[in-house]
Amino acid sequence: MAEPGKGQPEGLDKQKMKQILVPALAIAAVVILVTLVFVVSGGAGAKKMPFDNSNGSVDDSGLKELTTGVKYRDLKVGVGEECPRGAEVKMHYTGWIPDGTVFDSSKEGKVNPQPVTFKLAGLIAGWQEGIPGMKPGGIRKLVISPEKGYGKQANGKIPANSLLIFEVELIESKPAPEPPRARRSPAPTDLSKLSDGTEPGADDPGLVPLGDSGLKYRDIKVGDGAACPQGAHVVMDYTGWLTTGGTYFDSSWKPGSDGPLDMALGELIEGWKKGVPGMKVGGIRKLVIPPALAYGEKAQRGIPANSTLVFEIELLGTK
User: Is the peptide bond before 186 cis (omega within 30 degrees of 0)?
Assistant: First the structure.
């Protein structure tokens, strides 16, 4: 039997404990509920941007709409020519879904990560629309709607109907090659002159030096297509003359010719390697090539040693 006076304090202690514990448990339940909501909403797992540790969530006030379903924020603006639509791109990238799960990366978990090369035309619409306009060295955050990503189809770690978040770093881009243009019609018949009526060996004050090696050029017609990059595979019509006499030594227009030249620039003389890049498809250019950038001291069929050559080239396309 308990002693009088000890039961009362024990009862009071239990009552006080209830008064303390019940509110504490209620607060804990609220905290747990809020945490669960935060996790379900993606807040707890939201990834920071690898480049600068900035906001990597879809709820980013710095995002701007680029096209319908594609938003972006430039973390770093690059320098140089803007990436054109449909280009071939070399880049690093990391992609994740809103809960922070990384589903693919060219960098994460790799000891010596190397950039990857893609043709934009073969990628999801969000990349086709979100990367053009970037400059080499630029880093961009992209948030892509399911419609511009993988839509209703699950893909590896990516659930169906997922928003996609990317950090993309553009290393370089190359314009997509254009299908060859149709040749001039009717074909030129007077191959003793350039298409503008001038003679190959005539004085030409319009010639512009291209570098310091003696190579000169004049654009007879500026094309309206993509610019030819260094080392491209080219499709072009041409006629070549010595600087004296006006007689051509070779032409893709001559009777019995196989048609336009279809070769890589790397297989051609230095004057073409240096003189063709920068031309736009559809353009016609006159090149005056010194011996050192042509055949030098070695005579060729119809070309004496140490000859300066004049070419008219028409860029029909690149590959």
Answer: yes
**Cα–Cα nearest to 244, from 312, 308, 295:** 308
Strands of 109-202 (E only): list them: 116-119, 139-144, 164-174
Say which residue the tokens 């690093």 belong to: 92
> How far are the Cα atoms of 5, 10, 55, 83, 106 from residue 75, in angstroms, in the given order?
73, 65, 11, 17, 18
**Residue closest to 88 by CA, chosen among 114, 115, 121:** 121
- Of the candidates 94, 115, 113, the one whose C-alpha atom is nearest the C-alpha of residue 103 is 94
pLDDT digits (tens, 9 = 90+) for 258-285: 999 999 999 999 999 999 999 999 999 9
Low-confidence ranges of the chain (pLDDT < 50): 1-12, 14, 16-18, 20-44
Enclosing H/E stretch for 219: strand 216-221
- pLDDT reported for residue 8: 43
Pairing outcome for strands 116-119 and 139-144: unpaired
Catalytic residues: 93, 103-104, 124, 150, 166
Q: How many CB atoms lie within 10 A of CB 214?
A: 15
Beta bridge partners of residue 318, listed in sequence order = 234
pLDDT at position 294, please? 97
Tokens 């512009």 belong to 208
Kindly report the backbone phi and psi dihedral angles of residue 192, in degrees, each rounded to the nearest multiple of 5, phi listed first.
Answer: -85, -10
Residue 270 belongs to what H/E stretch? helix 270-275
The token pair that represents 167 in the structure block: 């950090």
Kindly tell me the burial class for residue 126, based on how many C-beta atoms sit within 10 Å of its own C-beta (0-12, 13-18, 19 or more): buried
Q: What pLDDT is recorded for position 177?
A: 74
